[in-house]
Design a protein that fits this description.
Elements: H1 2-26, H2 30-55, H3 60-88, H4 101-106
Helix pairs in contact: 1-2, 2-3
């Protein structure tokens, strides 16, 4: 049973990593690409690392620590990269209809 659940987690992680890579290729601008890279890749790496931990119980504690660290740091780093690209003047795709970032940066988002 442990073997099956470990491989299910690995395949689930591979699926999310595949979705993330397709999103990086298909999405129009840096903002939507970063969303695909942050959300799907975080889940993909999380499930892959936990799957390795389940397959090898001697590594389970270390794998859980790495997975927890990834869950904490990936969204924060993605947010920092997006803010930096916005301040650097990266263009928003024409398909994006609403841009509330200026109000958010000024503090008018309440």
């Amino acid at each position: 049973m442990r073997l099956v659940s470990g491989y299910v987690l690995l395949y689930l992680g591979a699926f999310f990593l595949l979705v993330s890579s397709i999103g990086l290729l298909r999405l129009p601008d840096v903002y939507t690409r970063m969303q695909a890279a942050t959300k799907a890749t975080t889940l993909g790496v999380f499930f892959s690392v936990v799957g390795v931990g389940v397959l090898n119980p001697a590594w389970l504690l270390e794998c859980l620590a790495v997975a927890f660290f990834i869950l904490l740091t990936a969204p924060i780093s993605g947010s920092a990269l997006l803010r930096a690209s916005y301040k650097a003047g990266s263009q928003i795709a024409p398909a994006t209809t609403i841009d509330k970032t200026p109000e958010f940066l000024r503090g008018d988002d309440k």
